[in-house]
Automatic annotation (TrEMBL):
This is ASX DEUBAD domain-containing protein. Residues 4-124 form the ASX DEUBAD domain. It comes from Oleoguttula mirabilis. Residues 100-161 are annotated as: Disordered. Residues 102-139 have a biased composition (Basic and acidic residues).
Amino acid sequence: MAAQQKRLLTTEKSKLGKLEPAALANILRKEAAWATLPLEIRQHLYSLLPAPQTGEAAHDVEVNPLRTSYRPYIEEELGRWQEDLKNGLEAKQWRQDALQAGRDRMEGQYDGWKEAQREEFWGEKGEEGEAVENLKPEESVGGGDEHDEDGVGNSTGEDSK
């Protein structure tokens, strides 16, 4: 891929990110846009779409998928891609950082943080691995003293009469 094309597809200041999503879809919907793609690319793009349902015709790589029932879904993804492009999520450095973060997670580098967050949100683990409540008695729902006539706690603190 030529450097100019790569910049067009990866730079957050790309003109493609500035187009209205419908305008980009209109450009790509043109037969000339689809026909210029090599057969292998068209086959790959169709492989990304769901397989046809039983009884439906097989994908035809000669037909632009934006002229099929997949059009609204493709347009939605184009809009997401444009947002990612504008936000710098298609840039080489961002992608490298994201891949490294994924490897780091797989290696367990964030397990300590994740465990601390879990304990803060769900409560500390006791000796047997059971959760220990972090709530103080006055923070519990209903305060523990307010009961309705049926003996069930009332979170508003008022009698339900």
